[in-house]
Amino acid sequence: MTDAVALTIDGPAGDEDLDPGEARAHFDPYIETLPRAALRSLQEGRLLGLLPIVYEKSALIRRLWDAAGITPSDIRSLDDYFAKAPFIDKDAIRQHRDRFNDPVGGLQIADQADLQVIGFTSGTTGDPTPVPSGKTGAIETELLREFWHMGARAGDYVTYMMFTFRGGQTRLAFFGDAGLTPIVMPHDPGDLPLMIEAIETYRPTIFYMLSTPMIIGLEKYFEAHPDKDPRKVFASIKAGVFGGEPMSPRFAALAKSWGIEIFDYTTLGDIAGAMECRAHNGFHAWEDLALVECLDDAGKPVPDGQIGEMVVTSLDDPWAPLVRYRTGDLCRLDRTLCRCGRTHLRYWTLGRKGDQTVVKGKPILPRDVQRLVEQHPETKTCLFQIIRPQAAMAVLRLRVGYETVRDSLAALSARLAESIGGELGVPVEIDLVPAEELLKLGPPQKIPRVTVK
Fold first, then answer.
1. 20 to 30 A from 253, CA-CA: which of 75, 106, 297, 347?
2. CATH 1.10.40.30 fits 356-451, yes or no
3. What is the pLDDT of residue 119?
4. What is the C-alpha separation between 311 and 292, in angstroms, rounded?
5. End-to-end Cα distance, the chain
6. What is the pLDDT of residues 134-154, one digit of tens each?
């Protein structure tokens, strides 16, 4: 596990040995380009060292493993682990929390004095679950590698605008250790004028992080300030990090027109984050930090390239490691070498398993609808919900938020139904509501995309 030592983003020795075109492309060339066989051996060693500690100290894991008749002594290899280890999920964490009045859901293995913060997941699909953490763990290691790859170096400024409580202000220690100076502001479109002023003053290299409401806010800001040239404002920005939900094609084109290279960011099953590299061909999962599986409904592995549920295990978390955690996220994996030179697997997220809606036998996910709703000027902010009273339906029912009306609501509804239905190949019913009604449910990137009514 990672020791709590100061990190520096000046870069380790050895990257001068990379090809000239890729010089200094990796913060840690040894780990980031480790051959797959050596990577698997590293994972196995870390896992076998972790399991006895977790079994002894994690009340949730010990209870579930005892119920399954499994102990760490039964696990002598990764193959043993895949064949025998029980699964956990968010419901198991919540049930342990409520049953035993344990605020950390039975996950904690560290002494209380070693914990810096109790963070929480965003709660998009249910009440938030706890994420206890300390200093210099998987998230810091992951961010260090990503920021280096995107071009940040010691002495740089970076913006810091987080929209969840998972890491909170504890990430600020990482920035100081890495030699970066964060410009900290709330993740609030109302603060964008101040943020733009700070960008023009301090010239940060990384815009961390953007989201649907922030992109919408920036678009409105530049429409209201035609004297501001976005390319000049963002001239120092080497990378913009976007998270919260998949970035839509319209937002991607908008950011590109501002001169921002966007790096999509997502969660690696609540263990850490995962980001695109400069190849922009999937999210990199750091496999020295997490063991990643892609499984079918029966818990069996699916071949790379096919769709399954992501299951993760922490390999570098001395506080509250997740062990064989079913994320509920649909994904597909690719373990081939990336053009950026990294050997760690890449994956693509397809949506939440529970958000899949079957209409006339055709599976549809919110991201399928997202790109179509945003194509209309009246609904370009992409506020919508799939109304799914039962698992399978004959008609795709959508609640869509609008900001303006070009002609009439009836005409807008007909245009949406025709374009979405024609593209997806299913009948569509549209329920139009003012955008403000959907925004009462939360910020745009956290509105429940699927609802029963």
1. 347
2. no
3. 61
4. 6
5. 46
6. 666 788 889 999 999 999 999
> Would you tell me how many other CB atoms lie within 10 Å of the CB of residue 404?
10
Q: Write down the pLDDT at residue 51.
A: 98
Q: Phi and psi of 322, rounded to 5°? A: -85, 135
- Beta bridge mates, 431: 399
Q: Where are the alpha helices (DSSP H) in 69-211?
A: 78-84, 90-100, 138-150, 171-178, 192-202
Could you state, in order of their start, the residue ranges of all structural domains in the chain? 356-451
pLDDT of residue 243: 92
Cβ atoms of 375 and 362 within 8 Å: the answer is no
Cα–Cα distance, 351 to 356 (Å, whole number) = 8
CA distances from 434 to 214, 225, 384 (A): 20, 26, 11
Ranges of residues in the chain whose predicted pLDDT is under 50 = 1-8, 11-23, 165-169
CA 126, CA 87: separation in Å to the nearest integer? 19
pLDDT of residue 359: 96
Which residue type occupies 287? E
In DSSP notation, 237-255 reads: -SEEEE-SSPPPHHHHHHH
Instruction: In whole angstroms, give the CA distance from residue 225 to residue 204.
Output: 21
Task: Give the tokens for residue 271.
Answer: 């263990």
